[in-house]
């Protein structure tokens, strides 16, 4: 008698329920199809743009840590590297590379293709974030600019962890502003397992949400939208897998934050009251000026002086203030932390937040500038130019295609060394010392690795010390360890040189002719390319 009522109360017989479910299913399928198509489009575009770079041997930190760590996982199944001291980086990216090698075989082509797949997925996350925060035109323009930004472009095919961490952060932020707490907890967790510093983003949002909770009621909706279901608990969840990794690492190695030298270089030696503000200034430059970003920043600031453009009799909307506030919280967290920690002030460490700045500036141009597409096009041209031309200041070689010049020169010199001086004892510095002793890095192809006597660099003290031990090596492979612009800014400012030497590990390499004279040898091979050089010096007996 009461069964019909009970049946209706479950909602099972609600009119239109099945059609609603069918409509939702169709919409979900359509969204997945669109995202899959975009992912394929981004991946194919990246593969075509990176085609000349896919077979390059590994570069610098790739060869020094990430490839050895991934190779150890591939060969032995251990998450703790055996062939290099552990830096305690979470193993997600190394596990991805090991899986790719297991499926397709170990090669640089497989490595770079696997990393380009991650880069395409990251661009898709950024596209979704920009579309949710702004609109479709801004999303396309932002994604295109980020893909062409020199630091992002070069990192796209390199086996390092900063870009994957940034990509997962984009997906997490998109889920955050779409109010999907379980999904942003998942993406933030994956970001932290790609690189530990990615935990900064959820912690920054946690602090921001906490501030919004205690602030005066009339400001709450500006800081955090009304009706948001996000709970602070979900922003803290990513700490759990990261803490589990560190506990596992400590149980296996006895070190919590990497080996003692890694901790000293990246934490203990950086916490100086003078170094932090200098590093902060460098981080601000990387955020707003580096490699053509200053053009976009300047255009955005000038656009702020103009009234919004009208569309359909109303002003074009801005990114919601609550979303801007969330972005700002993440950016400030990265600025503060990366200015205090990290021995090398590398631009790739800021990859999770530079695209947020690009998104905000592109949205400002779209809202206020009539010819915003032309401005975005000009910035894109500047980014492409930055890939091929070096700036008038020192920079990391991995930030544009200068890293390709380095690899090409080192591969040629290594082959020359192997053919001309087979079996000789070689004096060199890292990373060439690893390039010569580990054939699987792609520089030498010999059954027995070269015997290497390693020094720190090619500065005067190191070369003079090596000259006293000339009986221990037969030939020297010397190269420029840092890019030195032909007309560098602040070149003659002695105070700045001393600051760089004290806080940022700066040194000046001797020229090959000077090294040969001090070692008592002759140059048998010498090549220069776009401000870099490499030479082989035979020591005379």
How is this structure best described in words?
The chain has two domains: 39-398, no CATH class; 401-539, no CATH class. Helices cover 60% and strands 7% of the residues. The chain has helices at 3-9, 17-49, 61-76, 92-104, 108-133, 136-148, 150-156, 162-177, 181-194, 200-214, 217-223, 232-236, 239-253, 260-268, 275-288, 293-303, 321-340, 354-368, 372-388, 402-420, 432-437, 460-467, 494-503, 512-519; strands spanning 310-311, 314-315, 425-429, 451-455, 475-479, 521-529, 532-539. The strands form two sheets. A five-stranded mixed β-sheet has the order 4-3-5-7-6, sandwiched between helices. It has a two-stranded antiparallel ribbon with strand order 1-2. Helix 21 links the parallel strand 3 (425-429) and strand 4 (451-455). Helix 3 (61-76) crosses helix 4 (92-104), helix 16 (293-303) runs parallel beside helix 18 (354-368) and helix 18 packs antiparallel against helix 19.
Provide a concise account of the structure shown.
Strand 3 (425-429), helix 21 and strand 4 (451-455) form a beta-alpha-beta unit.
């Amino acid at each position: 008698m009461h069964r019909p009522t009970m049946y209706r109360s479950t909602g099972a017989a609600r009119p239109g329920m099945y059609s609603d479910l069918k409509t939702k299913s169709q919409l979900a399928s359509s969204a997945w199809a669109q995202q899959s198509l975009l992912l394929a489009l981004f991946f194919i575009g990246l593969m075509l743009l990176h085609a000349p770079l896919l077979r390059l041997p590994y570069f610098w930190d790739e060869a020094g840590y990430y490839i050895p760590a991934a190779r150890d996982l591939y060969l032995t199944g251990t998450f703790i590297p055996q062939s290099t001291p552990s830096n305690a980086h979470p193993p997600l990216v190394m596990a991805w590379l090991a899986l790719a090698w297991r499926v397709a075989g170990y090669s640089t082509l497989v490595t770079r293709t696997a990393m380009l797949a991650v880069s395409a997925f990251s661009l898709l996350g950024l596209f979704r974030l920009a579309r949710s925060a702004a609109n479709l035109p801004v999303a396309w323009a932002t994604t295109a600019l980020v893909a062409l930004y020199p630091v992002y472009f070069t990192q796209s095919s390199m086996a390092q962890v900063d870009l994957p961490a940034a990509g997962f952060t984009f997906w997490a932020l998109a889920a955050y502003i779409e109010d999907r707490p379980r999904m942003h907890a998942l993406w933030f967790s994956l970001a932290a397992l790609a690189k530990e510093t990615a935990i900064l983003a959820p912690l920054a949002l946690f602090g921001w949400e906490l501030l919004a909770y205690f602030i005066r009621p009339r400001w709450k909706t500006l800081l955090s939208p009304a009706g948001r279901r996000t709970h602070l608990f979900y922003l803290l969840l990513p700490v759990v897998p990261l803490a589990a990794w560190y506990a596992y690492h400590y149980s296996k190695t006895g070190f919590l934050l990497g080996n003692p030298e890694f901790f000293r270089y990246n934490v203990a030696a950086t916490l100086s009251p003078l170094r932090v503000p200098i590093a902060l200034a460098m981080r601000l430059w990387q955020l707003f000026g580096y490699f053509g970003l200053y053009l976009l920043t300047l255009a955005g600031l000038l656009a702020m002086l103009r009234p919004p453009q009208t569309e359909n009799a109303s002003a074009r909307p801005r990114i919601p203030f609550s979303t801007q506030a969330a972005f700002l919280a993440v950016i400030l967290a990265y600025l503060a932390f990366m200015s205090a920690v990290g021995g090398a002030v590398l631009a790739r460490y800021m990859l999770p937040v530079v695209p947020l700045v690009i998104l905000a500036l592109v949205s400002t141009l779209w809202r206020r500038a009539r010819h915003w597409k032309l401005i975005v096009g000009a910035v894109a041209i500047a980014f492409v130019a930055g890939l091929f031309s070096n700036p008038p200041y020192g920079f990391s070689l991995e930030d544009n295609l200068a890293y390709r010049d380095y690899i090409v020169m080192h591969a040629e010199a290594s082959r020359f060394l192997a053919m001309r001086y087979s079996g000789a004892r070689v004096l060199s510095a890292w990373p060439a010392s690893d390039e010569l002793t580990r054939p699987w890095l792609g520089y030498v192809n010999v059954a027995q690795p070269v015997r290497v006597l390693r020094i720190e660099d090619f500065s005067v003290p190191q070369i003079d010390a090596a000259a006293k031990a000339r009986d221990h090596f037969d030939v020297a492979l010397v190269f420029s360890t840092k890019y030195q612009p032909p007309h560098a800014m602040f070149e003659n400012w002695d105070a700045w040189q001393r600051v760089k030497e004290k806080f940022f590990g700066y040194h000046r390499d001797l020229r090959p002719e000077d090294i040969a004279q001090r070692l008592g040898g002759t140059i048998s091979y010498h090549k220069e390319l776009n401000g870099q050089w490499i030479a082989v010096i035979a020591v005379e007996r």
